[in-house]
Amino acid sequence: MTRGRIRAKLQRSHLYSFSCLHPSNTEAERPNSVQGSRIVHCNQPHLHQKKPLKYCSNFISTTKYNVVTFLPKAIFEQFRRVANLYFLLAAALSLTAISPFSAVSMIAPLAFVVGLSMAKEALEDSRRFVQDMKVNRRKTSVHKGNGLFGYRPWHKIRVGDVLKVEKDQFFPADLLLLSSNYEDGICYVETMNLDGETNLKVKRCLEATLPLEDDEAFKDFAGIIRCEDPNPSLYTFVGNLEYDRQAFSLDPGQILLRDSKLRNTAYVYGVVIFTGHDSKVMQNATESPSKRSTIEKKMDYIIYVLFTLLVVISLISSIGFAVKTKYQVPDWWYLKPQNTDSLFNPGKPALSGFYHLITALILYGYLIPISLYVSIEVVKVLQATFINQDIHMYDEETGNPAQARTSNLNEELGQVDTILSDKTGTLTCNQMDFLKCSIAGTAYGVRSSEVELAAAKQMAIEEEVDLSSFPMHRDNQQSSRKNVGRVSEIELETVISYSNGTGQKPVIKGFSFDDGRLMNGNWLKEHNTDVHLLFFRILAICQTAIPEPNQETASFTYEAESPDEGAFLVAAREFGFEFCKRTQSSVFIRERYPNSKQPVEREYKLLNLLEFTSKRKRMSVIVQDEEGQILLLCKGADSIIFDRLSKNGRMYEAATTKHLTEYGEAGLRTLALAYRKLEESEYATWNNEFQKAKTCIGADREAMLERVAETMERELILVGATAVEDKLQKGVPQCIDKLAQAGLKIWVLTGDKMETAINIGFACSLLRQGMKQICIITTNSDTLAKDGKEAVKENILNQLTNASQMIKLEKDPHAAFALIIDGKTLTHALEDDMKHQFLGLAVDCASVICCRVSPKQKAMVTRLVKEGTGKTTLAIGDGANDVGMIQEADIGVGISGVEGMQAVMASDFSIAQFRFLERLLVVHGHWCYKRIAQMVCYFFYKNIAFGLTLFYFEAFAAFSGQSVYDDWYMLLFNVLLTSLPVISLGVFEQDVSSEVCLQFPALYQQGPRNLFFDWYRILGWMGNGLYSSLIIFFLNIIIFYDQAFRAGGQTADMAAVGTTMFTCIIWAVNCQIALTMSHFTWIQHLLVWGSIVTWYLFLLLYGMISPLISGNAYKLLVEALGPAPIYWAATLLVTIACNLPYFVHISFQRCFNPMDHHVIQEIKYYKRDVEDQHMWTRESSKARHDTKIGFTARVEAKIRQLRGRLQKKHSSSVAS
Amino acid sequence: MASKGATSSGGAKDGTSDSSSSSKKNSKKPKYSRFTQQELPACKPILTPGWVITTFIVVGIIFIPIGFASLFASEWVVEIVDRYDEDCVPRNYTYNQLAYIQSSETNKTCTKRLIVPKQMKSPVYIYYQLDNFYQNHRRYVKSRSDKQLRSRASEGDTSSCKPEAVGGNNYPIVPCGLIAWSLFNDTYGFSVKNKALEVSKKNIAWKSDQEHKFGSDVYPKNFQSGGLIGGAKLNASIPLSEQEDLIVWMRTAALPTFRKLYGKIETDLEANDEITVVIQNNYNIYSFGGKKRLVLSTTSWIGGKNDFLGVAYLTVGGLCLFFAISFIFLYVIMPRPLGDPSYLSWNRGQVN
Questions:
Q1: Tens digits of per-residue pLDDT, B282-326?
Q2: Residue numbers of A between 377 and 396 with CB closer than 8 Å to B
Q3: DSSP helix/strand/coil, B29
Q4: How far apart are alpha carbons A193 and B8 in whole angstroms?
Q5: A582 in Cβ contact with A590 (< 8 Å)
Q6: Chain A positions in Cβ-Cβ contact with residue B333 (cut-off 8 Å)
Q7: What is the value of ipTM here, to two decimals?
Q8: Residue A338 in this model has a pLDDT that exceeds 60
Q9: Which one, of A369, A92, A98, lies nearest residue A960 by Cα?
Q10: Where is this region: Disordered (chain B) (predicted)?
Q11: A858 annotated as a binding-site residue
Q12: Which of A221, A860, A1212, B316 has the fewest CB atoms within 10 Å, i.e. is most exposed?
């Protein structure tokens, strides 16, 4: 409750983008004005044991229940289900005389159902508990007084404690950094678990606390921190440290957050500020909601419908009863009407009627299948086991199988409409490979990117298919043959170049470049050697990474801010320019030339660093080499660089542009490299200005710095361009392609920069050349900031409406749009007045990419999509930053990769790699959806068919509440006699095999379009139930009306009629399920036919036990029914008559209006797929939802382009 | 309650130094079996036109002969039904039937003549049929004690028999309950050509009832001794297992119109024989407007006269043949090659 109040205080406007390299020392002098009221006495945790300074402990708990609350809470959860509540009431009433049944037959099934569900809850919660305990018991080093540190478990850490955290450990709470092993008090932090970014962030302590550098120093350390209250904003912190009678302002740069990890730093000291649930990461965690699938929600409506029906027929019964009791019963002397009790009082028919209403409600309770929930539960657990056991979703590398963590969403997997995906770690491995480059107008690098390879392969197939499928080509065989030739040429070329690349060299992480012209120093033989030299130097120098010597390979690995930078450095190393050391002022490069054996170590004095921001889209360094030459080295987005080229720097512009376009098409991330030579004097004047800007204080400092930097980065000379392949996770483009073909929309929500996000979009085929990109960004927020929020919002609104207009006016049906929006804009776009425009636009776009979004925003976007479109959403992610969205979405999928477990813990399903999502959705989702849908429909059918016969009988029994069946029959109907076949339907049914599901992704659309659980189908099944009930009841009644039913002359009594009727029901519903199934393994056969056999066995055994228990059913089968031909004749007649309409319906439907899976079943049945493989491949390639994104769409675009080129070549050759 | 979903810290995977990780990894690998991979061999029947037509024809071919057989069996049964509740009330009581039946003074004997339409082979079963008598009323059905009926030891077990559980002096009534209390008490005597016909009351109840449900040591006690007399009285010297009329009556009927076996005549009745029936019209059905019928009937293998079963079989069989023909017709008019890919939705979409 307190947490909620705190969250209400959260001010979103405080969010601003986090830039780790901003020097913060300059502004650290003046204390902040602090709004919050939290006071932390550093190194004096004992002061925090009493109120009001007592804060929550560092103990965390994510469980739903504890030992005490489990029973009441879990029971409460169970009886929140309407049906369960009804059955509880019925069970309670069954103890009184009102109930038509014995108490045991009401209470036993309920206890079973509720007990089973609760056991499942307990198991799931205990797993969470174990996980929590593991975290709480981790140990960390705490100052115990007198400068001594000792280990203590996490949950015993208190606010004010001084901690010493060592390398590669997680921070146990939110800490204020006091000092580190580095002299300047910096440390490197990996925030993977918070925001999903894998690059390291630098935190720097206050200068005042620098002297606290060893254990001893904390003997007398004391200070007071006044800071904000706990809040979920990861990127803000406001507070002051009072130390040494001075106040210092604190900012996020000094705060180490729980769940981030210390890297590259031996140790740090820190003071605990926020513990346990107060910490930012826990504040960010949203309550884990209990999710229910669409089918289950709809099932509630059906239950309501049935309830209404139940109430209506109960009312009819009780009114009928009251009327009969009032007007007729007084004359029925055989009932002794003068001898009354409250349940039966002809004198007070209204009261008796009321009591009877309750009796009737219980009696007709069979309309509402009590076993439905428990059957569904059982089915889902079994389905989940199949998901867990699927060997095709087992990842050999990490050793993780897929896991259904909550089983109640299986069928929802088959109805997903939108996938919201995290990027880092989900789509990509966050690893860049240097693949190609263009230097001085020459393209290097012969290996092909994944996109190119796939394009070639696909094209070969398509051509073949085209030839065989279009007869008109036959007239023109010559040309088509030529085509084939050409295609195979293209294919060969790429395949060869690819195979050349792989076999020969050991794989270097981040480097897939292959071209003999540059490797091993061969670049010296090229023209323009000096340009090549510059190119490599820019790669090696223009960066912000930290080298780390690697003992094994005797070379360096790099901790870079972004993975591309790492790839550049690795490339530079491989080219012979090894970055080996960085000091505060210099960069050292070991340059190796083939003519000299020893590498030369050169020092470059780092004069200035103009860092990369998403707005500038470039970074530059100004260095002085050993000869004293001052150089500005710049790398950046091509458009930005090309704008700033000098006149004589444009020598290679045309060639480079061409190469850049090619790289872009191949799905590579490109950067252009340029340099500029500076005169000493020119630099000096500029540097003055720059320093001035740097030291100035105030809001416009950033803008000033930028402006000054701008004046330097001009008159550049183009050197070349690089192309880096962002290594996607295995199979991601193919998976996205298949998912797109299955008609799913994919949104990418990432914490990354816009450029990175766009590049990834290209790499995984969400974006492609020729797609119209709509970027919604906040323009010039600095200048507009004063005009207030309104202006910004209006601006965004304008952008949104313009874009929508553009899409509306677009005439080309093949045109595809992509929406790209950044986090800052998103904060506005997600506000209530604008979100619908935003959503409207986003839905019209083929792909949507949101960049720089915070975990909270991810959750908000997810909620918007979920609630705005009303369709099923699936969120997939791997890090703690995805937890919000995973919990918010209808289905949350966690990647159980190598990173943290938060996402997995919060998820409903976990898979080891993104590519398994295809199988999870297209195979398991499809199956589970159909299974559950059919199962639920059938369930209602069978209970209506059974329940209504009870009602009809009432009309013949003066509405007295007498049932025609024995209590035991009714008890066993749901529990034993009809439950196993329906479970086998729910567990084993397959309309088509898994291979077919994968080959025909279009089949998946049956789920999102909800073909198997729409109201027509549900009502159809209910109608079928109604029909069956009528047939079963009236045929039996008429046949057994008043005649002798066997040659012995006896007439049928109630037991005989009831038993015959019940036999008919058992036969009819079990034959019905056999007709519904399309996949019979021995299990289905056993369960369906076994159920019927069980009924006869039961009847036999029941008839053999003491007549005190079996009553009138004693020896019924053996003596009366078995020998009577009319019993068997009636069973046969009624069974056939019940199933006839359904049989006619499905025969008719299959013959004249077949659904896709029908046709495919037939193809498989006649093995036409083997005979006519052409047709099979052609159909499976056609079986896709019309999509504008994905690999295939992209490959098609590529093919169109290649064809155009071939056409041109062809025509030109003809012309000549 | 704020139970939070995200756990802290990704610790579960921190065992990088775990040397046995490879073996641990493999242990998580699902084991392959055709069952777990859902690849069990299965038969996947599909409804080809051949199957559809065959099914319909087979059902038709089976049903129609059964239908005819039942109809013939039913035809063969000879049945005489005679309603006597009104005829057996003297004229002067026509408007006061209730007084007539409730009075102990009135003469309840009544004679009726029946003509045998066709030869009736023995055994000829005698039934009484009651209309509008709700033997299936819950209050009525519940009002019995199987324990008491079965053994003398449980004589006092009458809790379920209300409101006819104990007599005036609080002694248990045997047999207790409304069902036994309202036992039918009309009697019939038959004679053909002034020669009395033997009515056998043996084996009219179910054998198992006689042997196991009604005790041979249980004798009627305190029965019909209260203020209100319901129906028949029982001979207190005959054990319940021998009281077959009671046993038949205690098997409650499913519907408010029912027949119960009264006895059987073990001699053949010739066509056009006139049977004289002497009825003791004791049972009160007049107060609730019921009817009483006397039924004489032979049986066949399907039991009594039951045209409906045959008709229903013929109807369903006929329908199936009709469907078979219509489907053949439809397949000829609108043939669809099975597994024709042009019927796939994406192909159909393109055509349109």
A1: 888 888 888 999 999 998 888 888 899 999 999 999 999 999 999
A2: 385-386, 388-392, 394
A3: coil
A4: 9
A5: no
A6: none
A7: 0.92
A8: yes
A9: A98
A10: 1-33
A11: yes
A12: A1212
